[in-house]
Amino acid sequence: MRMKSYFAPSVQDAMELARQEMGPEALLVNSRKAPPEAKGLGEYEVVFAVLPEEPAAPTAEAGPAAADPVMGELARLRNQVQDMVNALNAHASHWAVPAPEFAPIFARLVENDFTIDMTRKILMQAHARLNPNPGSRPGRKAAFDAESVENAVRAEIESLLEVDASLAELDEKKRVVALVGLAGCGKTTTLVKLAVRYGLACSRPVQLISADTKRISAVDQLRTYAAIIGAGFEAVETTRSLQQVIEANREKGLILIDTPGYAAADMEEASELARFLASQSSIEVHLVAPASMRAADLSRMVDRFGIFSPSRLIFTQMDEASAFGGVVSESVRSGKPVSFLTTGQQIPDDIEPATTGRLLEDLFRSSAEAALSAA
Ligand SMILES: Nc1nc2c(ncn2[C@@H]2O[C@H](COP(=O)(O)OP(=O)(O)OP(=O)(O)O)[C@@H](O)[C@H]2O)c(=O)[nH]1
Ligand SMILES: [Mg+2]
Predict the structure, then answer these.
(1) Do residue 259 and residue 325 come from a single domain?
(2) Is residue 294 situated within a structural domain?
């Protein structure tokens, strides 16, 4: 900004002078009676200013240092501010909900262990269900009540969530089921529940096989259960003998294979059994996981157990879990149907076929409780 003082007998005269010299854009910034020592120059001092023209943005060749350093610094700051605005905009759209009424349910799902990306996708689709007319502008006044928002979100999750508890209707080819998973996740207990509920109770001869010969106690545990429920039992040490026992029992109505628990560090050790189970199209592999696992841990675990090619998920300890976002979001993410849910330690009672109704009910109940306790 360029400024200059003019002394003249009147303000009017000073303005004319300034406009002649500084041009028609000159702005009057201040005027006052001239101080005594300047009275000889004129009765009034009037200050005018002209704004500088927009400095050209420093070019790559010239660089800010080549221009006036203050202007260069200004240009650099302006670029920084623009970068911040861009980043904020990108962030805002990342968090954006399709309509303001979706904000509470967005928070509920994210607090319930849904990833932000998945929540956004679900809410966008739920919004499309409620508002099939895409012309309506965001930012208009609330049009959806909380109940219809929740119902649309439920319907959307229901459409993404798959369940398949068809073990009870085993066909000729799929009579062999193996359970795999982390140590202590409930494989053996669940296997025995399945043997009773979906084998013996349906008058099917059942063969239990323990491939968990690492621990004597594991073999004994399953042998004891087999004796109690009146099922056949065999323990195998190698994949070769596993194959032989399966072949020898082909006529059985249901063959259930128990496997050792594998932690992240044991996956190398698991690879031979994993390759075998994954390669047999007649074996249906179910991955067992505790319902209370956090979504991120669950995803990593499901990915790690990918070497077994599990086709379904079983969630155990539903009775112990207080949040079910991990269960639902991992089922959606992995695209694997949920087969069974176990709800306690009682054999054979505490197991049920998975239904989307039950999973959604648990999810929305737990997220409502979380929202209440946060309030
Ligand atoms: N509360 C509850 N406990 C369960 C459930 N399912 C299994 N358990 C308990 O979890 C513990 C471990 O169960 P197991 O069936 O031995 O687990 P596992 O995966 O075979 O364990 P490893 O063979 O050591 O890998 C036992 O005390 C079970 O009674 C369930 O649905 N709810
Ligand atoms: Mg076990």
Answers:
(1) yes
(2) yes
Q: Ligand 1 pocket: which of 225, 288, 345, 346 to mutate (most atoms <8 Å of CB)?
A: 345
pTM of the full predicted structure? Answer: 0.74
| First-to-last C-alpha distance (Å) of the chain | 53
Give residue-wise pLDDT tens across range 311-354: 999 999 999 998 899 999 999 999 999 999 999 999 999 999 99
Q: Does 16 reside within a domain?
A: yes
Atom of ligand 1 nearest to the CA of 258: 20
Query: 66-92 burial, b if ≥16 CB within 10 A, otherwise e?
Result: ebeeeebeebeeeeeeeeeeeeeeeee
Residues 337 and 188 in one domain: yes
348 preceded by cis ω (within 30°)?
yes
Full residue range of the structural domain in which residue 116 is found = 95-160
In a domain, 271, yes or no: yes
CA of 237 to the centre of ligand 2 (A): 15
Chain segment 38-90, per-residue pLDDT in tens: 878 887 777 766 665 545 554 444 454 556 888 888 888 888 877 776 665 55
For residue 59, is it within any domain? Answer: no
**199 and 259 belong to one structural domain:** yes
How far is residue 219's CA from residue 260's CA, in Å, rounded to a whole number? 10
pLDDT digits (tens, 9 = 90+) for 105-151: 988 888 888 888 899 999 999 999 998 776 555 555 557 889 999 99
Determine the Cα–Cα distance for residues 319 and 342; give it in Å rounded to an integer: 8
Which atom of ligand 1 lies nearest, measured to the CA of 218? 23
> Nearest C-alpha to atom 7 of ligand 1 is from which residue?
186
Protein residue with its CA nearest to atom 2 in ligand 1: 344
Q: Is the CB of 64 under 6 A from ligand 1?
A: no
Residue 158 has a CB neighbour count (10 Å cut-off) of: 12
Does one domain contain both 15 and 129? no
